[in-house]
From TrEMBL:
It comes from Streptomyces termitum. Residues 136-248 form the Cyanobactin oxidase ThcOx second domain. Residues 245-255 have a biased composition (Basic and acidic residues). It comes from the Bacteria. InterPro entries: Bacteriocin_Proc_Enz, Nitroreductase, Nitroreductase-like, SagB-type_dehydrogenase, ThcOx_dom2. Residues 241-275 are annotated as: Disordered. Residues 298-464 form the Nitroreductase domain. It holds the Pfam family Nitroreductase. CDD domains: McbC_SagB-like_oxidoreductase (cd02142). This is SagB-type dehydrogenase domain-containing protein. GO terms for molecular function: oxidoreductase activity. Residues 259-268 have a biased composition (Pro residues).
Length: 493
């Protein structure tokens, strides 16, 4: 009897699987059986598919991740020149690379991570790093919960990575600090080749960045890139995701839900006292006496007056009516994306004028102020913070706080809602600047207000309605409405 040694256990390795994005379809072109039509999110691509293996492979990829070795034996093995079937499949996969999801699975079939292309330009070309190559997570990479997976994404990447298992997350977590492939393999007690493959995927997806310059302190290109120096990861991601072109998240308002009615669920009105009707200006008088647009534009500037005076009720009424009221027919003097009007105005005054000290909610339809009965300490805090932000040594006579009812705009414009409402703040601020300049009132926009203070002062749940813009105003000693006699540059040289 001859005894033979048991076969050596094969080292665990990662299997590469291929699939197509769910929004991709594959069919044979109607006019030519040798041509295939691949429809992606972005376009229809006609491709030669004379060899049925190409069509079969793509079709299998529409059902989910598949090892292409099962479709074309030897596909992932070493390249053998002159193999036309393999070359045809490879070139087809390259042509539709922006629709191809690449998945790494362990030998038992468990999918570990997937790299999903997000844009037409996405091309994925993983390489296996050397055992001593050192990487770190990109400082722009963020990890969040997706649908059933952890989602690793970066505003600098054309791909997102789905981490399907705790093991994949452990691997990623090893790279919070620079680590070599060899160190990671040792730490996780995983074969070196497994880590090389996975790190190659994460590097090609832009989530891990390679270090250069060792031994000694390593250097990472993204840390030295002047274009990235002043971007915080949060701001770059918000910027990236609030405009189309660099990701695949829906931004198309046509696909969005209609905006909910104002004051629907999640939009509680703050508790208000008896409303105070504001004076309505005579627009014929305003038209007859107002300076020309160019005069107001040329005179506009930010005024930070320590000796600023309270606005009279007539002035406050005129300013709000001309800048922010809801017109009976439609619209307001400032524009709003989709006519959604997510902004609400709150007026806080010092009490040195006709209005008692406190905060008021402006009702743009009734052109009225609702006293909020805010605790005096919060009114003090609002005015104190605004004065400091404007660089004043006293409280500003009037603070206008703009809040946004996120539900109103978020439902109608998913993805771009936040950037759209900030643009709206800018449009309203410029309207306030120009009207107050024409009226001879000193205006100044502020960079920020305290979210917690305003939410508490106005009785709001900041998650549903939060401060997004602040503006201070003061009547000016010796000031009066700007007229055509105030030639450009004479009042404010
Ligand atoms: C979005 C924005 C935020 C601002 N934040 C502040 C601020 O926090 N404090 C301040 O005193 N001025 C602030 N300003 C006013 C600017 O400092 C001012 O517009 C700039 O210096 C140009 O001067 P001008 O407005 O007189 O032309 C802000 C202006 C804008 C548009």
């Amino acid at each position: 009897m001859t005894s033979s040694a048991p076969p050596a256990p094969r080292a665990p390795r990662l299997v590469e699987l291929w699939s197509l994005r769910e929004d991709t379809t594959v069919r044979t072109a109607a006019d030519d059986a040798g041509t295939g039509l691949v429809s992606t999110l972005w376009e229809d691509i006609k491709l030669p598919m004379a060899d049925p293996v190409v069509h079969r492979a793509l079709e299998r990829m529409t059902y989910g991740p598949v090892s292409l070795d099962n479709v074309l034996p030897g596909f992932s093995g070493p390249a053998s020149p002159g193999d036309p079937r393999r070359a045809a499949l490879r070139s087809t996969l390259e042509a539709v690379g922006h629709a191809v999801i690449r998945t790494l699975a362990t030998g038992d079939g468990t999918q570990q991570l997937s790299v999903v292309p997000m844009v037409r330009e996405a091309r994925f070309a993983p390489r296996r790093p050397a055992p001593d190559a050192t990487h770190r997570l990109s400082r722009f990479a963020t990890l969040r919960v997706g649908t059933g997976d952890m989602l690793l994404e970066s505003p600098l990447s054309a791909h997102r990575v789905l981490l399907h298992t705790p093991q994949a997350m452990w691997l990623v977590s090893c790279y919070v600090r620079p680590a070599s492939v060899r160190e990671t393999a040792r730490l996780l007690d995983v074969p070196l080749e497994v880590v090389r493959t996975a790190v190659g995927y994460l590097e090609a997806a832009g989530m891990l960045v390679p270090g250069t310059g060792g031994p000694g302190p390593l250097s990472f290109a993204e840390d030295r890139d002047p274009a990235l120096e002043h971007w915080s990861p949060r701001e770059l991601m918000l910027h990236n995701r609030s405009r189309p072109g660099l990701h695949d998240e829906p931004l198309d308002p046509a696909r969005a839900e209609p905006a909910p009615e104002p004051d629907g669920p999640g939009e509680p009105r703050p508790a208000a006292g008896a409303p105070l009707a504001l004076p309505v200006p005579d627009l014929d008088r305003v038209l007859a006496t107002d300076p020309r647009l160019t005069t107001a534009l040329e005179a506009r500037r930010s005024v930070r007056a320590d000796d600023g005076l309270p606005l009279s009720l007539a002035q406050l009424g005129e300013l709000l009516f001309r800048s922010a009221r809801a017109r009976p027919a439609a619209g307001r003097p400032y524009p709003s994306v989709g006519s959604v009007y997510p902004l609400e105005l709150y007026v806080t005054v010092t009490g040195s004028g006709e209005l008692p000290r406190g905060s008021y909610h402006y009702d743009p339809a009734a052109h009225a102020l609702h006293p909020l009965g805010s605790p005096p300490s919060l009114v003090d805090a609002l005015l104190g913070e605004a004065g400091a932000t404007a660089g004043l040594s006293a409280e500003p006579p009037v603070l206008i706080s703009m809040t946004a009812r996120f539900r109103r705009i978020g439902a109608a414009y998913p993805g771009l809602a936040y950037s759209a409402l900030l643009k709206e703040v800018g449009a309203l601020q410029q309207t306030l600047y120009l009207v107050s300049t024409a009226m001879g009132i000193g205006p100044c926009a502020l960079a920020f207000g305290d979210t917690a203070t305003s939410a508490r002062a106005f009785g709001l749940d900041w998650r549903a309605e939060s401060g997004v813009g602040e503006f201070v105003l003061a009547a000016l000693p010796g000031g009066g409405p700007l007229t055509e006699h105030d030639r450009i540059g004479t009042r404010y040289p």
